Structure formats: structure tokens, C-alpha cells
Amino acid sequence: MITYEEFVMVHTLYRQGYSIRAIARMTGLDRRTVSKRLKEDKLLPRKPRVYKSKLDPYKEYIKKRIAQGLP
């Protein structure tokens, strides 16, 4: 994930005439990341991924067992 400061730096350096490769070298970012971020007007927050648990089908059963005090 790129920080807001890196995002601003990428845009500033590009406006100053630096190439995408030069910006990538200076910032330590991949050139594809630099290119992708230059296409964006503002940095959008990423949505966290929601992973399904392998225990999801059994959660109600487990809760009942715990409530009953059974192992």
C-alpha cells in the first residue's frame, strides 16, 4: 500500500519532469505502481478483504456447546 506522502511525491516529481523510471528509483516503488498512481487524481482507501472461515458452518453449533458448558 502506498502512503499519502508517497502519492503526493510521485505526482510532484512527475510534474517536475522526472520519468516514471526515475520516480520509481527515487521512491523505491515499482514503476507499474508509479504509473498506476499517476492515473489517479486522489488516493482512494482500500477496502479490507473479508475472508470466510472454515468454521463458519459450525459456529452456531460451537456457540450452543459453549453455552451448555459442554466440551
From TrEMBL:
Record domain HTH IS21-type: where: 5-66
Xref: Pfam families: HTH_38
Gene3D superfamilies (alphabetical): Homeodomain-like
Leader peptide range in chain numbering: none
InterPro entries associated with the record: HTH_IS21_transposase_type (IPR017894), IS30-like_HTH (IPR025246)
Protein known as: Transposase and inactivated derivatives
Source species: Nitratiruptor tergarcus DSM 16512
